[in-house]
What we know:
Elements: H1 3-42, H2 58-68, H3 79-96, H4 115-136, H5 140-163, H6 165-171, H7 176-181, H8 187-190, H9 192-205, H10 217-220, H11 230-255, H12 270-292, H13 298-328
Helix pairs in contact: 1-2, 1-11, 1-12, 2-11, 3-4, 3-11, 4-5, 5-9, 5-13, 6-13, 9-11, 9-13, 11-12
Amino acid sequence: MSHLTVIMQWVVIIIGMVITTVALILLAGYVVYLERRGLAILQDRYGPNRCGPFGLLQPIADAVKLLTKECFQPPFADKFLYNLAPRLVVFSVLLGFVVIPVAPGISWAGDFNIGLLFVLALSSLHVYGVFIGGWASQSKYSQLGSVRTIAQLVSYELAMSLSLLGVIIFSGSFSLTRIVEQQSIPYIILQPLGFIVFMLSGIAETHRLPFDMPEAENELASGYNTEYGGMAFAMFFLGEYLGIILIAALTTTLFLGGWRGPFVAEYPWTGIIWFGLKTVIIVLLFIWMRASVPRTRYDQLLKLGWKYLLPASLLNVIFTACIASFWMI
């Protein structure tokens, strides 16, 4: 292979990654719009409807507003960690998308044989970015939010990982592509308990209602991002909604059959449509929960994680292992 060919391949990869990154950022912006309009409908009020037809240009207006705001940095903050945290949140979530297969043979990293472990590691890194941001702000509200973030992580992370062991046992692989290919029957049918535990853990992972204790506006002002504004706040905001899309895409891949659906065998490109539809359904579930479910108390989340989610995930692993052993016999 000539040097020119290698250079051209890298150019194509870089251009594709830039386009994908811009597309994901725009998608996150319109998920915010979808949420605001959806909440307005569910609460019988108007949502954003002035900026452009049906308010469709509202995400662009919000982005311009945040980008042009002054980036004030508190004099008492740890400057390096304060600036590192929002970047760590955004980049860790964006990296998680490179191993998600959206159609047969279509993912940036290809068939990565430890893709699931890669995504789980990056999701934990995202949480540490939130913790660093709150801790580096040297503000009482922000530090309380960061401490809550780590307490949440300890409570749900183990249950979240164990809930996926059933999927791994049935598929026999950590490869996300292999997991999708093995789902002749979607794993939500074979692993309903694992799906419920993973979804509840995913809601806590993204700090969404009813598990948004790290922010908890009525208790902590805005929690870990109280001292952030302008572009830094926009990066935290973007990281949250990209995280929702990532959890929805991962749920689609692990439990809903990924790109599998009618006509995919004849027309592989339709896999993108099926994958997108399933992901949108999960995102709408996040929005519906925000409109319908009240915030739990902090101690209730810890109790849920340790007393219910963890035993449920362990029972799911034991039950799945017994079924797998029976099939092998």
